[in-house]
Each structure stands twice: as C-alpha cells, then as structure tokens.
User: Fold this.
Amino acid sequence: MTSIERELYRIDHLPIFQNRMYDSALDGINCVRGHMRLVQNEGTGLIYNRAFQPEVMVYDSNYQNEQACSAEFRNHLENVVQIISQTFGDISILEVGCGKGYFLEMLQSCGYDVVGFDPTYEGSNSSVYKTYFSKDAGISREGIILRHVLEHIENPVKFLNFLKESNGGSGLIYIEVPCFDWIISHKAWFDIFYEHVNYFRTSDFYHMFDGVLEIGHIFGGQYIYVVADISTLREPVANPTDLVELPSDFTSGINRSTESSKVAIWGGASKGTIFSFYRNLTKKPVDIVIDINPAKQGKYLAGTGLKVLSPEDGIKLLDPGSTIYVMNSNYIEEIRNQTKNNFSLIGVDNE
Assistant:
C-alpha cells in the first residue's frame, strides 16, 4: 500500500493544547508549542498532522473542555443518548475518554451499566477511573463509546485495534468526531489545531469498518457519528475519489474586521484559542474573551494569555450594539437570549 503523503496545510508554533487553562497570562503565552503539517495519506485516505508529537500531550485536571454548561450542547447530548439507545439497546458500556463524566452520568440516569476512563476527571463517581484506559484494567463491555477522542490519537486504526483486542475482539462501538468536510466547506481554519492530530470524513469510517450499522452528521453538521461492529475493523484503503484539497481562500476569514473599538469573542475553548492566536499574528488582537464555563473563567488562554471572563463581566466592557464574534454559530440564539439582543453577534463559521 502506498504511503505517499500530500501536504494540505501548514502553520508553525501552535499551542499544543487549546483547552488547557493557565493560572497567569505569562503561563499562557509561554505554553508549549508545536507545528502543524496537515497531510493526506494516499494509501489509507486518512488525514493527520505529520509533525504531531504524542509524548508532549499530557492531559490532567487543568484540561477543561466540558461543553455541557450550554443548554444547546445538552440538547446535542440528548440526541446522542437517543442514538445510543436505538443502536446499542440495553447493553453494558465502556466510555473511553469520558472527560468530566457528564455524558456518562446521563447514560447512568437512563439505566445503563457504564464505566469510564479519563485522566482529566475531577468528580467522585465510583464508575469513573481517573486514568487512561488500558488492557490491564481487565474491563470489557458489550458496547464502547468514543466521543471526541479518536481525533486526539496519533494512530487511530492502531488504537481501535487496541480497543478491539481489549474487548475480546467483539462489541459495538459509537464514535463521534469533528467532520473535516464541514471544516472545508465552512473554511473553518480555527478548527485545525495541534490537539487534533486526525481529521475525519464519513468515507474514512466506511474504509475502516466492514460493518457500519449507522453513520451520519449531528450538531449542525459539525460532527460525524458512526456506530459499527468493532469486530469488522480493518486497515483502510483509499480510492481516487478520496483525495481532498483545501480551498485556495481557506484562511481568508482571518482578516475579518469589526466596527467595535474592542474585539470580543464568545467561546474560550478550541475555536476561540485558535481564533485569538491568528488574530495576534495579523496584528488584530482579540480584547475580550467570554465563556459560560465557570472552570475557564478567571483562567488564561494558551498562546495569547487572554483572560477568560464570565458573560456578566465581559459584556460590561462592551458598548450596546458592539460586535461579538461567536466561535460556534450553534450557540447564537442561546447567546442572543442571554445578552438580551443588545449586541451584534457574528458566527465565525457563517461568514
């Protein structure tokens, strides 16, 4: 099989973590950085960062990526529970990379027997192991959930094989990842970052699994979900139609302008960190970062050292009618209601 790699995109000195929070602006500015060399393997069709260094990626409790503070995102999770219920049925579940445990506890409230693994977990649920999943744990289940994990793993097929072997070679698996086709069509340059080494399309999963039970797009098309029989995992083989290119004007949105005296963004997570990073590069820095997650408020972003403010504190610094760039347009109506329609909201993925 060919291993020719075609370079699609490159950027240097990206913060290696977009959701790791820092205690001071200086710590955020001096964060560890890495390079992006986004390539497509013509043999497998898979897209990944050739310059990724997994040894620098150490996840701990300073990593804050809980999105369930938002009612809109909780609605998304309810939809995922429905998919799990319809495809898994009443089976035991292992959630690998369960984060802060919110989704795991949703499943438990629905009566599922579920255990989870994640080194960033901070709660007290005895069903969650505060560590990476390993075969030595001796835990197998009829179903495996892998939500927003596979994009972080250097060799996704090898990792899936590890899960398959650890689970006795069988079981159903639910995978949820960002959609690279959505990133391309929306010219979402702020969705390419070091933390995500892999970028998937639906075709990739058809190539990886012979037994795909269900596949589709959710969360406004931003995510792919797939339910597959893990026993049918195989090495992917691409066909000529799988080759992709980024549009020539992919990063044109970086030079967006605002009439406001201050540049404000709503969303201090991955998109907001990268948006702010690029704005610094173009000498149009972000002034105000707002996020509803209390674990982020008062902390500082990687790369720029910007302080994350609560909605209450952030909007006090803005004149009525000021522009706020919303890092994810799925949340615009929620934010409009929260700010009582006093600001001009622009979804960066809608321009």
